[in-house]
Write a structure and sequence with these properties.
Order of helices and strands: HHHHHH
Number of domains: 1
Number of helices: 6
Number of strands: 0
Length: 84
């Protein structure tokens, strides 16, 4: 699990906003963080945020980190599956 996934899972919005601020000029780092799939289930940060139902975190991931709303887990589940 990377830092963005942990922040998304635990709903640490202040830390997410801090990451957003320090990575404002580093698009490659934001992309690397948001597209990292954890090795056990292939979950991305967006999946963790959706599983926890944190709309503010989801919005930040989509708008500021360009998370892929169609991303699938290692088991083929998409964001809508995780929400259900």
């Amino acid at each position: 699990m990377n830092v963005l996934q942990a922040v998304s899972y635990f709903g640490a919005e202040r830390i997410l906003k801090y990451l957003m601020k320090i990575l404002i000029d580093d698009e490659a780092a934001r992309k690397e963080l948001v597209s990292y799939a954890e090795p056990n289930g292939g979950n991305l940060a967006i999946h963790f945020a959706v599983l926890k139902g944190n709309k503010r975190i989801i919005d930040i991931l989509l708008e500021e980190f360009n998370a892929d709303p169609k991303a699938t887990t290692g088991n083929g589940l998409n964001v809508v599956h995780c929400a259900a």
